TrEMBL record:
Keyword Cell division: no
UniProt cross-references to InterPro entries, sorted A to Z: CBS_dom (IPR000644), CBS_dom_sf (IPR046342), Diverse_CBS-Domain (IPR051257), DRTGG (IPR010766), HotDog_dom_sf (IPR029069), Ser_kin/Pase_Hpr-like_N_sf (IPR028979), Thioestr_dom (IPR006683), WH-like_DNA-bd_sf (IPR036388)
Organism: Caldalkalibacillus horti
PROSITE patterns: CBS (PS51371)
Alphabetically ordered keywords of this record: CBS domain
Chain ranges of the CBS domain: 255-311
Record-linked Pfam families: 4HBT, CBS, DRTGG
Protein name as it appears in the record: Transcriptional regulator
Amino acid sequence: MTKHELIISHIQSLEVGSKISVRQVAKELQVSEGTAYRAIKDAEVKGLVSTIGRVGTIRIEKKHKENIEKLTFAEVVNIVDGTVVGGQKGLHKSLHKFVIGAMELEEMMKYVDKGSLLIVGNRKKAHQLSLQHGAAVLITGGFEPTSEVKKLADTLELPVISSSYDSFTVAALINRAIYDRLIKKEIVMVEDILISITNTHYLYTTSKLADWYQLSEETKHSRYPVVDHKLRIKGMVTSKDILGHPTIILVDKVMTKDPLCVTMKTSVASAAHMMVWEGIELLPVVNDQKVLLGIISRQDVLKALQYTQKQPQMGQTYESLITGHFEEFDEEDDFYIRGDVTPQMINDVGTLSSGALTTIMTEAGHRAIRRGKRGDLVVENLSLYFFKPVQIEQVIEVHPRLLEVSRKFGKVDIEVFHEGTVIAKGIMTAQLIDR
């Protein structure tokens, strides 16, 4: 185990809510402070710790896929640029809802319960009652609680946070963070479809081709990752690689070295693009030290993509926000989409932005190909030419025309019109994936 892995393992073993410092970790594990610092930052990326100004780094509970939309109070502090003024030991806890205290005290408390967060101004009685109901408090306007409230927060281990923002801004910031997590929840990652290392068949660099034949006979597979004695990925070996070679030759003499790999946090869509683009059937999944964690197959990736397309969209992405209001028309074999230029689609001078126009043209090309062929596609190339700016609230029509389509390939000519005049043209090519 490397020093980096040792520190990560140590952090995982700590009790949730524990404070962590670079100096402390370096001293306990007898590593340099630089190594400790890098490992703690990696733990933060992995969701094992959270760093808060004036408080430090604390161990938090790593979120699972099903509750990723929940925020910890530690994350709330960072979102609202807040200061923790009490109850630091409860920062690792998650909130299930927030309540804005803009009503009479008695009515307010009807909505405050255990695990919630009360957002309120300088209302001292509300601070105390909220804590007694098991809820944390976020005080807006830069005010601070009384010393009695601070002591109560420390006793109950419920955070009291102070923010200089007003209640509306604070609520908007928290709501935006939750909304972003709802979108992220729908993005399937490699970790969701991983065939773990315990169920993965692999060979060592010191294995012989005879070992490949034996493993292939047992598993009926023909592709295997190749690792060193520390399980670090070194190559991939397939049936094509071993043909014509004696069985006594070592695997590392015929394998493909430095293969393409993905991490646990790679999206399935990115993995699919890589597999289609490079013609790969199997991808090793590794950590930052290139240690093999498992594999994903092309078949599993395509199944995951098809599954996600059947799920309800939890939040609007950039693409759905831009193209969601465009209507389809099919008039005498002339298929096109039409919509107006909304405020979300313009640049800082009030005309349709090149990014939004590119998104619309790509979507039109997608729809044109899918009308003639069921399946998924990966955009390979997009050549665009812009001729004329279009202002906000003006209507545009996007006419995609199929130039070529086969089992594996599609090409579309795309023209964009405003009041009968061409404002942009483009050619899109894409690789097609059969379902």
